[in-house]
Design a protein that fits this description.
Number of strands of chain B: 13
CATH architecture of the largest domain in chain A: Sandwich
Number of domains of chain B: 1
Structural class of chain B: mainly beta
CATH superfamily of the largest domain in chain A: Galactose-binding domain-like
Order of helices and strands of chain A: EEEEEEEEEEEEHH
Helix content of chain A: 10-25%
Distance between the termini of chain A: 37 Å
CATH topology of the largest domain in chain A: Jelly Rolls
Helix content of chain B: under 10%
Number of helices of chain A: 2
Structural class of chain A: mainly beta
Strand content of chain B: 35-45%
Distance between the termini of chain B: 42 Å
Number of strands of chain A: 12
CATH class of chain B: Mainly Beta
Radius of gyration of chain B: 17 Å
Shape of chain A: globular
Strand content of chain A: 35-45%
Strand order of the largest sheet of chain A: 1-6-11-8-9
Largest interface: A-B, 44 and 42 residues
CATH class of the largest domain in chain A: Mainly Beta
Largest sheet of chain B: 6 strands, antiparallel
Radius of gyration of chain A: 22 Å
Strand order of the largest sheet of chain B: 1-3-4-13-6-9
CATH architecture of chain B: Sandwich
Number of domains of chain A: 2
Shape of chain B: globular
Order of helices and strands of chain B: EEEEEEEEEEEEEH
CATH superfamily of chain B: Galactose-binding domain-like
Oligomer: heterodimer
Largest sheet of chain A: 5 strands, antiparallel
Chain lengths: 196, 183
């Protein structure tokens, strides 16, 4: 589990939908994935589930979600205005030729290329960041692809967000060092030490 | 960071310094770099570090405030993540107009070494950057991408970059500063 799983509800997609988990069925329309608003071909996949000869990868737990052509899921998240948040999630590619995933907090958005396999597990944890311009933001995951098979698309799991701590600029330290190097008088050194 | 996975976290391309998962740094390449933690990897210092992957296709950089014509020293730790990554490991380090490739030398006592690169600032902002020289893969599966670890990156104001015992000098400087603080 995540350190800060609390901010995103059902980020691991393990919550049971009101009508139960679909077994190899495609879920369409809104509120089929608990706590998420979905649009397009959004499918809850189960660990061990096959599509053709391919076993679908579930990065964590028993369930994950797959985004088909142009499909998206989104959730409203309460955040601290003015802070920077890191969004972490796991993603795996499936059957499409060029798979990518667009993660956005409108208007900011970032497309992540899922083409490169960085390891043999077949999925990877990623982190992207967004600035909280309001008290809440809409976190959107979208598959921008258009494949012949509309169900081909990335599998995502384990979505969480966490507020980032941004270290102060180290400018002051350099200034202090230069003050000491130049053998300025004590008061200035002390003052610069206070500024550090 | 994921507490129960040993895969690290990939940081994809991000050109916006203001909004970065790795505050202060940008990932300016098309490919990602891996943010690793000490629970699952060897990191030179503290709890986290960056593992550079896929050669020139994984670059992290930062703009550092400098004073033109002053001498600076870029120091950093270069290490092995202890993830069965097949050697050789090496990085290309950039600071202003200087560039240097530094090979990691395996040492039984440590998983990292420190390296430094001296440069003269040409402007008020100087770019420092790192990428891996080789395309490394793990020796157990021969396909997972891995690479050298970079940590503890510092840019020091230096007016004696020809001094051989630079680190000793720096230690002395730190002690001097401490002594002055205590006065």
């Amino acid at each position: 589990m995540h350190d800060d799983a609390g901010l995103v509800a059902n980020g691991d997609f393990e919550a049971t939908p009101s009508n139960g988990f679909p077994n190899e069925a495609i879920v369409e329309g809104p509120s089929e994935v608990p706590n998420w608003k979905s649009n397009g071909t959004v499918e809850l996949v189960e660990s061990g589930q096959k599509q053709g000869g391919m076993i679908l990868i579930v990065p964590q737990g028993r369930h994950a979600v797959r985004l088909g052509n142009d499909a998206e899921i989104s959730q409203e998240v309460t955040v601290e205005k003015g802070s920077i948040y890191s969004v972490t999630f796991c993603a795996a590619r499936t059957c499409a030729q060029l798979e990518s995933l667009n993660v956005s907090v409108p208007p900011a958005s970032q497309t992540i290329d899922l083409q490169t396999l960085y390891n043999v597990q077949g999925w990877n944890p990623y982190a992207v960041s967004f600035n909280a311009e309001e008290e809440t933001f809409r976190l959107v995951f979208k598959n921008p692809g258009m494949e012949d098979d509309p169900t081909c698309g990335p599998i995502i799991d384990n979505i969480a967000i966490k507020k980032l701590f941004t270290p102060p600029t180290p400018k002051g330290i350099l200034l202090c060092k230069s003050y000491i190097n130049h053998r300025f008088s004590y008061p200035i050194i002390l003052m610069s030490a206070l500024l550090c | 960071m994921f507490t129960n996975t040993s895969l690290g976290v990939l940081l994809p391309t991000n050109l916006d310094e203001e909004t970065s998962s790795l505050p202060g740094w940008i990932v300016e390449s098309n490919r990602a770099v891996r943010y690793i933690d000490s629970d699952h990897y060897s990191v030179p210092q503290g709890r986290r570090a960056v593992e550079l992957l896929s050669g020139k296709e994984g670059i992290i950089s930062q703009m550092v405030q400098t004073t033109p014509d002053k001498l600076y020293s870029l120091t950093f730790s270069l290490g092995h993540a202890n993830d069965k990554c097949k050697e050789p490991l090496a990085v290309m380090a950039f600071a202003g107009d200087q560039a240097q490739n530094i090979h990691y030398t395996p040492n039984s006592n440590s998983t990292f070494q420190t390296a430094n690169l001296n440069f003269t600032a040409k402007a008020e902002r100087t770019r420092i950057a790192f990428y891996s020289i080789y395309y490394n893969t793990r020796s157990d599966d021969m396909s997972s991408l891995c690479g050298p670890v970079v940590d503890d990156v510092r840019v020091w104001f230096s007016n004696s970059n020809a001094l051989p015992g630079l680190s000793l000098f720096r230690l002395g400087l730190a002690l001097l500063a401490l002594a002055l603080l205590l006065v």
